Amino acid sequence: MKNKKALNLREIVVMASISVVFGVLYLLWIFFGQFIQGILGPVGWGLLTGFWIMAPILCAYIIQKPGVALTAELIAAGTEILVGSVNAGVVLILGFTQGLGAEIAFALFFYRSYRLPVLMLAGMLGTFASFLTTYFLYGYSQYSPLITGLMLGTMLISGALLAGWGSKNIADALTKTGVLDNFALGKIRRTQRMKKDAISEHG
């Protein structure tokens, strides 16, 4: 009997492709983050953290199967290392914890809900995991409790808006082009359009 929760080849290819692209962008985003941090301080870095959680949420929203978020972030982290990251160990640890944080959000709803609030929660859990990881790896002893709290707050906001809301908008825009018709998100959107058309015809 075919396992409906198992990834098929098409889903694996798309997940890997998206994650590889984001892995390259993750590395480039570091330089942008350093620039913003130079202007706004550590809080500025927190505002950008959600970008590093986009690959798992985008892939999970499109495919809607268990394990996608964690796997996607690990692929993105691996790609970031291959294209030039000098902190391979830290990147892999962050990839695992960030992906796991996002994965937990979908697991809490038994992988049955991928609505915006769930995507935003996934982004927040991903950035919270990122905060905890970097806190224990590096510590924030150089910052006051106020600055550390502000960092966490901005990271959670970035996770909700940049990772959650941003990923949803990217995927929804792709869905309108028809390129995702063979994936869970595309099928859901197509069904919704058919129902809407049927209601309009009988309205």
UniProtKB/TrEMBL annotation:
Q: Which organism is it from?
A: Saliterribacillus persicus
Listed name of the protein: Energy-coupling factor transport system substrate-specific component
Transmembrane helix found in the keyword field: yes
Q: Which Pfam families match?
A: ABC_cobalt (PF09819)
Query: Transmembrane residues, as ranges?
Result: 12-32, 44-63, 68-86, 118-140, 146-166
Looking at the keywords, is Transmembrane helix present?
yes
Q: Any idea which UniProt keywords this protein has?
A: Membrane, Transmembrane, Transmembrane helix
Read off the InterPro entries from this record: ABC_thiamin-permease_prd
